[in-house]
Design brief:
The complex is a heterodimer of chains A (403) and B (222). With 403 residues, chain A is of the alpha/beta class. In chain A, 43% of the residues lie in helices and 15% in strands. Chain A has two domains: 199 residues, 3-Layer(aba) Sandwich (Rossmann fold), CATH 3.40.50; 181 residues, Rossmann fold (3-Layer(aba) Sandwich), CATH 3.40.50. Chain A has 14 helices and 13 strands. In chain A, strand 1, helix 2 and strand 2 form a beta-alpha-beta unit. Chain A is globular and about 65 Å long. Chain B is α+β, with helices and mostly antiparallel strands and 222 residues long. Chain B has a two-stranded antiparallel sheet. In chain B, helix 1 packs antiparallel against helix 5 and helix 7 crosses helix 10. Chains A and B meet through helix 1, strand 6, helix 13, helix 14 and strand 13 of A and strand 1, strand 2 and helix 7 of B. Strand 6 of chain A pairs antiparallel with strand 1 of chain B.
Chain lengths: 403, 222
């Protein structure tokens, strides 16, 4: 499995992964989250577990089960951790714990290292048997509802370590807190190399002309992704440079506002034949890959963002990327080197014009972007980091470890 | 070394200290008490992270890009951490620059939410890269292909072991191969004016030149 990344991932990461394979040979590494399908966590686990197994580590992935009430509570926890007002009762927290207690009875929690993803299964720490336990928080908890955070922290502070995606997403706790950004898989359907035929197949499917520069934003139809701002920027560019705009995305099942946003976007785009609004079904990875590869400039003009991995996806395809300076986007875009950080439709339009009129600069930024992603945002780096934390937890007390 | 140079490389895992600053006064207060490991990470380890070369450490980058205080950023960029034998001496110099700025300039604005300075520290894992060389020609082959973190470990991190005056490569050229000129040439590469790939290119060029000179001298002797 790890051989699939040879010639793609940094050599040093592969050397270290193989060393960890020997250090942790036949040791058990359990991941637990709350869903097998859908969402970024499940996507990364589908890719990561086979890599760990390929290294000789006995990796397992289990999912906790719960009733409708449990998932309604955990959805509220998720929203409250991101700052939304939610009402909680003692009974809700008791149910959250009870469902975890039932799961603990069914799951095999005996492992040398256990990585618990997000708040849903966090109480499993109370049923720890042995090994290193790490809580992985994929959510921005920088400004949570404090009552909810304090209730959850009872569990999180019992772990050996916690992991956040970005330093600014973290909260001060009494355990070691590591910063590990998420990653993309370069050999997955969404990111693998495509032939020119595969790219034109997608263009044909959506009737996209390939005779002009293409501006692309791939994201859910969500106001925080500012699709209206993207259309405004496109119109400003269009005064000077002929181009087309593609807004490609899906409707998240847990977002009741999606339909309304999509309708707004369609109305705002009016009947401009050069604006393509593509509502993609789940599992459109190959089409997304092709759209990113046919684009001239990729946008991620969010006004609020989690990590925004679509930025790294586009950079991996050697595209200059313009992104809102929010969430994890500034960590991925080196301003002026691999793309530009923008703060308004006007700024976005200006940078798009700069790139369309300087193809050499766009090419240079794209090339640098790919190398930056190679060094920092591939899945092999993320696996390497998790195993490093496991190793560090077993060798506490020193900041320099010889392997 | 027994004549052999064995390449090592390193990986850093970032740990949050839980401390952050939204303005220069909070930054100054945190800078005074934050762990030595955090100072080390934000200065010495800056070049390992593949940043742009407008700045030379995380503090100057935040002053420039986060607070938009160009004069402070220039002052902080000009601090060479290798000039200080102990991290505490580096802390005193950083504090002096910030204090002078707070005294002589108008109060800077707060950073935008999300742009605060987050003090981190690291755990460093060091391991053998599985590459070793016995002579300059083999070294030339290896230096072109080894991982960038290996360059960091032997060229930058090593400077701390030699009080800012040398690096592992120069030591090996000098002590094991008797190549004093080449060793000196590498010692005079400005570590802050190139990224790791730029350093790689300069080392390779200097070694290649020496290998060619050696070949020419060997040819002339036969």
């Amino acid at each position: 499995m790890i051989d699939a990344y040879k010639g793609i991932s940094p050599k040093g990461d592969l050397v270290l992964l193989r060393k960890f394979g020997k250090v942790f040979a036949n040791k058990t590494f359990l991941h637990v989250n709350s869903t097998r399908e859908g969402g970024g966590v499940a996507e990364i686990l589908h890719q990561m577990v086979p890599i760990l197994k390929g290294l000789g580590i006995d990796a397992r992935w289990d999912v906790i089960r719960g009733d409708g009430e449990f998932f309604s509570i955990t959805k509220k926890i998720h929203n409250a951790l991101q700052g939304n007002e939610e009402h909680f009762t003692e009974r809700m927290w008791a149910h959250h714990f009870e469902v975890n207690r039932e799961n603990a009875g069914k799951l095999d929690l005996e492992a040398d290292a256990v990585l618990i993803h997000d708040p849903q299964p966090a109480p499993l720490i109370n049923f720890r048997k042995k090994g290193v336990w790490i809580w992985r928080c994929h959510i921005d908890v920088s400004n949570p509802r404090l009552d909810v955070w304090n209730s959850l922290r009872k569990y999180c502070s019992q772990y050996d370590a916690a992991v956040f995606s970005v330093a600014k997403f973290a909260r001060s706790m009494r355990v070691d807190e590591f910063i590990i950004p998420p990653s993309i898989d370069p050999v997955s359907e969404k990111n693998r190399e495509l032939s020119p035929e595969e790219i034109s197949e997608t263009a044909k499917k959506f009737n996209i002309p390939l005779d002009r520069p293409i501006l692309l934003q791939v994201s859910r139809f969500d106001r925080f992704k500012d699709p209206i701002g993207v259309i405004k920027a496109y119109r400003m560019v269009k005064k000077y440079n002929d181009c087309i705009l593609i807004l490609a995305g899906s409707l998240a099942t847990d977002d009741p506002e999606g339909e309304a946003v999509l309708a707004e976007v369609r109305e705002y785009a009016a009947d401009d034949p050069d604006v393509f609004i593509l509502l993609l079904p789940n599992f459109s990875d190959k089409d997304i890959n092709a759209l990113q590869r046919m684009a001239t400039v990729v946008l991620q003009k969010s006004i609020k963002e989690g990590f925004g991995l679509t930025v790294s996806e586009a950079m991996w395809k050697e595209k200059p990327v313009l992104g809102g300076a929010v969430g994890g986007i500034p960590i991925q875009i080196m301003h002026g080197i691999t793309g530009f950080l923008v703060h308004s439709p006007e700024g976005t339009a200006f940078r798009v014009r700069q790139l369309l009129n300087n193809p050499d600069m766009a090419k240079r930024m794209g090339e640098r972007g790919k190398e930056y992603v190679r060094a920092n945002f591939l899945i092999t780096r993320q696996v390497r980091d998790y195993l490093s934390i496991w190793y560090a937890a077993e060798h506490k007390g020193s900041s320099v470890l010889d392997l | 070394m027994n004549g052999i140079f064995e390449f090592k490389q390193c990986v850093i895992i970032i740990k949050s200290t839980g401390k952050k600053a939204k303005n220069l006064r909070e930054f100054r207060d945190a800078l005074a008490v934050v762990s030595e490991g955090s100072l080390f990470h934000h200065t010495y380890q800056y070049l390992l992270k593949g940043h742009i070369l407008e700045y030379t450490n995380d503090f100057s980058q935040w002053a420039g890009a986060g607070l938009e205080e160009s004069a402070l950023s220039e002052q902080l960029s000009n601090i060479d951490p290798y000039d200080f034998g102990a991290t505490e001496a580096l802390r005193i110099e950083l504090l002096k620059v910030v204090d002078d700025y707070l005294e002589g300039f108008p109060e800077p604005r707060d950073a935008m939410p999300g742009d605060e300075f987050f003090f981190n520290e690291t755990i460093t894992l060091v391991f053998q890269a599985g590459v070793w060389v016995r002579n300059l020609a083999e070294f030339l082959m290896a230096i072109k292909y080894i991982d960038a973190s290996s360059l960091y470990y032997h060229f930058f991190d090593a400077r701390r072991r030699f009080e800012g005056k040398s690096n592992d490569f120069s030591q090996w050229f000098d002590e094991e191969l008797g190549k004093k000129d080449l060793a000196e040439k590498l010692r005079f590469i400005d570590p802050f004016m190139h990224n790791l790939e730029g350093i790689r290119a300069r080392i390779a060029a200097a070694v290649e030149e020496t290998v060619q000179q050696d070949l020419e001298s060997a040819g002339a002797a036969t």
